[in-house]
Structures are given as structure tokens and as C-alpha cells.
Amino acid sequence: QVQLQESGPGLVKPSQTLSLTCTVSGGSITTSYYGWSWIRQSPGKGLEWMGVIAYDGSTYYSPSLKSRTSISRDTPTNQFSLQLTSVTPEDTAVYYCARLPDGTWGQGTQVTVSS
Q1: How many other CB atoms are found less than 10 A from the CB of residue 62?
Q2: 70 has which bridge partners?
Q3: Could you give the angle at the alpha carbon of 11 between the alpha carbons of 79 and 78, nearest 5°?
Q4: Does residue 33 have a cis bond before it (omega within 30 degrees)?
Q5: Which of 79, 83, 88, 45 is nearest to 66 (CA)?
Q6: Do β-strands 18-25 and 11-12 pair in parallel, antiparallel, or remain unpaired?
Q7: In degrees, to the nearest 5, what angle opens at C-alpha 98 toward C-alphas 19 and 71?
Q8: pLDDT averaged over the chain?
Q9: Does the pLDDT value for residue 38 go beyond 90?
Q10: Gap between the Cα atoms of 5 and 18, Å rounded
Q11: pLDDT of 66 above 90
Q12: Do 8 and 33 contact (CB within 8 A), yes or no?
């Protein structure tokens, strides 16, 4: 059974880069035809899909976040990562990693953007 676990700083200063890692166990991130996604939920708002890195390494991003978002992977460690640049307090959210299309999620990690 695949499991996902997010990790990274819980506090980021405005204008800095938010970096999170998702460690996957019980399944390979290169297995066809899964996609490995980042999703967030801000206080009082719904879920927001940020982007995905597919099993073959191709990436797709939300148009609204594309200019600030990068998703990469490290196949030897079976991890994939999120970088979000130039953060503002509006980027404060619980960040989740997930496997698509079956929808296996990590537990989420709270990131607060504040000086």
C-alpha cells in the first residue's frame, strides 16, 4: 500500500521560496501511469491543485501558479518536491502531496508565511 509523507519548514518569510518534499513508500514514483501532485488548502478556502509530475517526469502546473511553481523529483530516494517562489501571506495553507488518479494523499503539512 502506497504512503505519502510531506516534510519541510512550517514557517516561511514573505518573498522567500517555500520548499516541500513528499516521500513515497510502498510504490515507485516511476510506475506507469501515475501522477504525483501537490494540492493546498488555505484557511477558509477550498482545495487548490498546484501541479503534477508524471511517472515519466513531465510536469504540468496550474495556470494561476505556473510562474512561481516548480515540481521536481529524485528517483533514487523516491521523493518529489515543490518549490513556490516569492511567497506572500496568501500562500499560507495546508499543503498535501497526492498520487493520481487514485487519490492517495499524505496527511498534509501546515505552512505559514509570516515575517
Answers
A1: 14
A2: 83
A3: 5
A4: yes
A5: 83
A6: unpaired
A7: 35
A8: 96
A9: yes
A10: 17
A11: yes
A12: no
Report whether 89 contacts 14 (CB < 8 A).
yes
C-alpha–C-alpha distance, residues 16 and 14, integer Å: 5
pLDDT at 94: 98
- Whether 71 shows a pLDDT value over 90: the answer reads yes
- pLDDT exceeding 90 applies to what percent of the chain? 95
Number of CB atoms found within 10 A of residue 47's CB: 11
Dist CA 28 CA 95 (whole Å)? 21
Beta-sheet strands, E only, within the chain: 3-7, 11-12, 18-25, 35-41, 47-54, 59-61, 69-74, 79-84, 93-100, 104-105, 109-113
Statement: residue 103 has pLDDT above 90: no
Q: Provide the grid cell at 63.
A: 495556470
